[in-house]
Specification:
By secondary structure, the chain is mainly α. It contains five helices and two strands; from the N terminus they run ββααααα. A hairpin with a 2-residue loop joins strand 1 and strand 2.
C-alpha cells in the first residue's frame, strides 16, 4: 500500500499517493496521447479571465503572481514549481498542460476532482498568457 499525504494549502486539501515513478522522475513528461488533446476554450477571452481568477486562488502561492515558480509556498518544494514563462514550459501543448493539471504529481496537486474540466481548460488558457 502506498503512503498517502494530505496537504492543506490556501483552504483546499489535496491528497497525494506517492509512486516510485513520480518520486524518481525529475522531468515531468505527459504521455504522448495527451499532446493531441484539443483545448475547447482556445482563444476564449472570458475563459482566460476565469482562469486568472483560479490561478490567483490556487496557484499563486507556489507558482508566484507572474508564474515564475517563485511563490512563497513553493520555496521548500522539490521539485520546484514550474516557471510558466520559460520557452521549455510554453512549448508544451495545451493537452499536456491539461493532463498535468488533471493528474498532478508530488508536490503538484491533482485537480481532476477539485476543478471541473472547464475550469482546468480555463487555467490552461491563463497559463498561456505567461508566454514571452
Amino acid at each position: 500500500m502506498k503512503p498517502v499525504f494530505i496537504i492543506i494549502l490556501s483552504g483546499f486539501a489535496f491528497s497525494f499517493s506517492i509512486s516510485k515513478a513520480c518520486a524518481d522522475s525529475k522531468e515531468w513528461i505527459a504521455p504522448s496521447n495527451a499532446k493531441d488533446i484539443a483545448n475547447p476554450l482556445k482563444g476564449n477571452t472570458a475563459a482566460t479571465m476565469e482562469g486568472k481568477k483560479l490561478f490567483t486562488q490556487l496557484c499563486v502561492v507556489c507558482h508566484g503572481e507572474k508564474g515564475k515558480g517563485d511563490g512563497v509556498g513553493g520555496a521548500a518544494l522539490n521539485p520546484k514549481p514550474r516557471n510558466f514563462t520559460l520557452d521549455k514550459t510554453q512549448n508544451q501543448t495545451d493537452g499536456e498542460f491539461f493532463w498535468k493539471l488533471s493528474e498532478g504529481r508530488i508536490p503538484m496537486a491533482s485537480y481532476k476532482t477539485i476543478l471541473t474540466t472547464n475550469q482546468r481548460w480555463q487555467l490552461v488558457n491563463y497559463l498561456r498568457t505567461f508566454k514571452k
